[in-house]
Design a protein that fits this description.
Layout: H1 4-29, H2 36-56, H3 59-69, H4 73-85, H5 100-113, H6 122-161, H7 171-193, H8 199-221, H9 235-238, H10 241-244, H11 257-274, H12 284-291, H13 295-305, H14 310-326, H15 333-336, H16 345-356, H17 360-367
Helix pairs in contact: 1-2, 1-8, 2-3, 2-4, 2-8, 3-5, 4-6, 5-6, 6-7, 7-8, 11-13
Length: about 375
């Protein structure tokens, strides 16, 4: 399909792009900005050694780092997703279990190639290629399902317990994970259809370039992307709060529709009078302390009676406050979203349009 020279230039171009974009992203984000820089580091460190095989054709130098780092790619994405979604996540000794496939492949590589001349390694290189692909495919399937259930559980927890609209910005992480799994599933499908295709030589680096290009897009168009500090809370710890530090609150119980209605009336009355929703860090635990009810009861009542989550309720009240202020021509859109509880313009505008169907400026024009 392609000559060796063409494949060489494709590989060198992709590797160069990855390294240059990594430098640019690290300089722009300073390893902050919601993990964009870390995602770029993962892509480069775990994939470039494999691409260098196509560039140097010196298997003795490149096969060992490629054997070790390639199986670390998908586990690194796993740790990245956890760090993005939960700031209390820490890398522990137990986490090293995820590196076992990398050490297995490295040891296998060393055992097969030890003491053999390069001209006698044809079978070994073919075996290692097959073995590496099998390991990566098994990782892809296992981690894909595990991350799906983790992200689903985590996002539901955030929706039910927090009002900070900036957390919408971390959803780029979900989009990145989807793009990642689709890209590498495509790579494996190409291999299954034609295991001998040389397309694998150039498809892999091109897919990595696509992932890096998406990170550049995120850094440019979502410059406020961040993981709010409240993400340090974990579902497990929050579930125990009522037993330790807040004995004055009613414990979690099963409730009737009438009980849920009474709780929701109490919640809405408190929020309307206190305007606590204008605090961008307002959470269900703060509300729990103010009205003396267990967080689980609050969440159950909001979900069961109002048919929405805590995030939706608080942000709808913020939008109503924005609309109230926008009816006064003296106010401008850019001048009010902060005082209504939104941290940034980029989180306010999409939410307003989602609820009202039009932009804030259009709404103000139609209602003043």
């Amino acid at each position: 399909m392609f000559s060796d020279t063409t494949l060489f230039f494709i590989s060198i171009a992709c590797v160069s792009f990855l390294v240059i974009m990594l430098i640019i992203l690290l300089a722009a984000t300073r390893m902050k900005g919601g993990g964009v820089g870390w995602a770029a580091v993962i892509i480069v460190i775990t994939t470039v050694p494999g691409h260098l095989i196509n560039v140097t054709h010196d298997y003795y130098i490149t096969i060992y780092p490629a054997s070790f780092f390639t199986p670390l790619f998908i586990p690194s994405i796993w740790f990245f997703a956890h760090a993005q979604m939960d700031k209390s996540f820490r890398f522990t000794t137990r986490s090293l279990l995820h590196t076992i496939p990398a050490f297995i492949l490295l040891i296998t590589t060393s055992s097969l190639l030890a003491g053999k001349m390069e001209s006698n390694r044809v079978w070994e290189f073919m075996f290692l290629r097959q073995f590496s692909l099998i390991i990566c495919f098994c990782q892809l399937v296992a981690y894909c399902f595990a991350l799906f259930f983790y992200c689903r559980k985590r996002l539901k927890y955030l929706d039910d317990n927090y009002s900070d609209s900036d957390y919408i910005e971390i959803k780029w992480t979900i989009q990145f994970l989807i793009l990642f799994f689709v890209a590498f599933l495509s790579l494996f499908l190409v291999y299954i259809i034609n295991p001998r295709t040389e397309g694998l030589t150039w498809i892999a680096p091109v897919l990595n370039v696509s992932l890096m290009a998406y990170l550049v897009y995120v850094a440019i168009f979502h410059s406020t992307t961040q993981s709010p500090s409240r993400l340090s809370d974990s579902p497990e710890r929050d579930g125990k709060v009522g037993e330790n530090g807040h004995k004055n609150r009613t414990t979690s119980v099963e409730m009737s529709t009438e009980q849920m209605k009474d709780i929701c009336d109490k919640i809405v009355d408190y929020l309307q009078n206190s305007k606590a929703y204008t605090n961008p860090d307002f959470s269900i635990n703060m509300l729990s302390q103010e009205i003396g009810l267990h967080p689980k009861n609050i969440s159950l009542a909001i979900n069961g009676y109002l048919h929405r989550n805590f995030f939706g309720l608080i942000n709808e009240m913020r939008i109503e406050e924005v609309k109230r202020l926008l009816r006064n021509p003296a106010y401008t859109v850019d001048g009010i979203f902060l005082e209504c509880g939104f941290r940034s313009r980029s989180s306010f505008y999409p939410l307003f349009k989602k609820i009202e169907g039009i932009t804030p400026a259009q709404w103000q024009k139609n209602n003043t």
